[in-house]
Design a protein that fits this description.
48% of the residues lie in helices and 20% in strands. It is built from 5 helices and 3 strands, in the order H-E-E-E-H-H-H-H. The radius of gyration is 14 Å and the shape is globular. By secondary structure, the protein is of the alpha+beta class. It has a 3-stranded antiparallel β-sheet with strand order 1-2-3, covered by helices on one side. It has a single domain, classed as Sufe protein. Chain: A (Alpha-Beta Complex).
């Protein structure tokens, strides 16, 4: 994917995020922040009868990378099990974002939503 197309895709997800908002009656409800750059995210999700992600939403504020990654991630994780999500990492997020290679300063931004989702699933499993 060319750099321009990648930037357009990220900006589109930043300005028009998918699954933006708060899900009522959520099984997962977690807030997380990235203190190094001030990104904040609130992830809510509902699990189906098999324990897979049925619906997920997010809200927050932050840089283009963190908000676009959260938007893309909410599309990707629907139908996935907690085990599948726990195996996801930076390379998966970078692939969602068009194969972009992120600078070290942007890695935490890109992983914020995924880390929140993983922690939320862990906490939901302990209830």
């Amino acid at each position: 994917m060319s750099g321009d197309l990648y930037r357009e895709q990220l900006l589109d997800h930043y300005h028009n995020p998918t699954n933006y908002g708060v899900l009522e009656d959520a099984d997962i409800d977690i807030e997380m922040d990235n203190p190094t750059c001030g990104d904040e995210i609130h992830v809510t999700a509902r699990l189906d009868d098999q324990g897979q992600i049925e619906k997920v939403m997010f809200e927050g504020q932050g840089c283009v990378v963190s908000m676009a990654a959260a938007s893309m991630l909410t599309e990707e994780v629907v139908g996935k099990s907690p085990a599948q999500i726990s195996e996801m990492g930076l390379s998966d997020v970078q692939e969602l974002m068009g194969g972009v290679r992120l600078s070290m300063g942007r890695v935490k931004c890109a992983l914020l939503a995924l880390n929140a989702m993983k922690q939320g699933l862990q906490e939901a499993g302990k209830r």
